[in-house]
Amino acid sequence: MNDVKLTSTLAFRLGTLGAVVTERFSARLTAHDLKPKQVGLLAVLDSGAAASQLDIAKLMNVAPSLVVSLADRLEELGAVRRERDPSDRRRQTLTLTARGRDLLSACTEAAAEIDAELTEGLGPEEAEVLRGAMRKLAGRHGLPAD
Amino acid sequence: MNDVKLTSTLAFRLGTLGAVVTERFSARLTAHDLKPKQVGLLAVLDSGAAASQLDIAKLMNVAPSLVVSLADRLEELGAVRRERDPSDRRRQTLTLTARGRDLLSACTEAAAEIDAELTEGLGPEEAEVLRGAMRKLAGRHGLPAD
DNA sequence: TATTGTTATACTCTATAACTATA
DNA sequence: TATAGTTATAGAGTATAACAATA
């Protein structure tokens, strides 16, 4: 017999808790007129890991057409600058503006506040092991590891 | 200065890893013609925590109209039985069938396989602490704790 | 009147495919 | 011809609002 419950698997808990956390993050972002994916794009630019829209799409695992609309919105907000690459005029290079860095910083703070809420009921060592394990899992599954 | 990176917050990692895991779970469910929310409903019924559609909607934090369509589909698959409550004929009572229990069991096994993939790179103690912490977090944020 | 479930409708997010411009 | 980006269109998923049946 299999008396393991679905709801006690790591997979179920990661999926459902991830949705709750994203919803909570999203609620805080409304103050800055931002959506999670837009903030994700800011973080990609900040990391310096990609600059052209196509590279960004690959890194974020989203369709290139989605990057267009994310970048449109971020440009409207003054958070990114879009420039044609002079050496290959098909490429659009996105760069963070000062405003973009400020926004990313505010969003990072919002995430840190959620972290505090999440780890409130955990012991300090337990929280530290959790953070370490999540970092490893991220790295092993194609997400930023630092 | 705030040199904490967004991508290293617990909130970001839970959100993104949760999406990856849900996607992976979803891919395995296609073999049974099921979607994650439908399986979630099976798990609710199995737990005995709710039976009427409205109670289920509240428990799952979804709109009552969504429960209608989830239940329609599960009924088509022969996974649940829908009966009017004789004592209050407005209520529809959902119960798991043997087929529903089999499906839930298969989906639980799929989740357990994902768990194995996830914890592969972790030490046994580390994995155990991770499981314990996730259980606590689930319990504190309105998700099943057992 | 209030409540349960249902149906009709609309909204959000995202992908696919067709298109433009550069190479 | 192939590639980067864009636009047009479509699909999945879910919510809101109007409605029907029952209390």
What does this structure look like?
The structure is a homodimer of 146-residue chains. Chain A has one domain (6-140): Winged helix-like DNA-binding domain superfamily/Winged helix DNA-binding domain (Arc Repressor Mutant, subunit A, Orthogonal Bundle). Chain A is 63% helix and 10% strand. Chain A is built from 6 helices and 2 strands, in the order H-H-H-H-E-E-H-H. The mean pLDDT of chain A is 97. Chains A and B meet through helix 1, helix 2, helix 5 and helix 6 of A and helix 1, helix 2, helix 5 and helix 6 of B. The first copy, chain A, binds a DNA duplex (23 and 23 nucleotides) through residues 35, 37, 52-54, 62-69, 88-92.
List the SSEs and their pairings.
2 copies of one chain form a homodimer.
Chain A: H1 10-29, H2 36-47, H3 53-60, H4 64-76, E1 80-85, E2 88-96, H5 98-119, H6 124-140
Antiparallel strand pairs in A: 1-2
Helix pairs in contact in A: 1-5, 2-5, 3-4
Chain A binds a DNA duplex (23 and 23 nucleotides) through α4 and β2.
Structural class of chain A: mainly alpha
CATH homology group of chain A: Winged helix-like DNA-binding domain superfamily/Winged helix DNA-binding domain
Enter the CATH topology name of chain A. Answer: Arc Repressor Mutant, subunit A
Strand content of chain A: 5-15%
Oligomer: homodimer
Order of helices and strands of chain A: HHHHEEHH
Shape call of chain A: elongated
Largest interface: A-B, 61 and 61 residues
CATH architecture call of chain A: Orthogonal Bundle
Gyration radius of chain A, to the nearest Å? 18 Å
Query: What level of helicity do the residues of chain A show?
Result: 55-70%
The biggest beta sheet of chain A is recorded as: 2 strands, antiparallel
Spans where pLDDT lies below 50 across 5 or more residues of chain A = none
Number of strands of chain A: 2
Going across the major beta sheet of chain A, what is the strand order? 1-2
Q: With helices defined by DSSP (H or I, 4 residues minimum), what is the helix count of chain A?
A: 6
Q: What's the overall average pLDDT of chain A, rounded?
A: 97
Q: Count structural domains of chain A.
A: 1
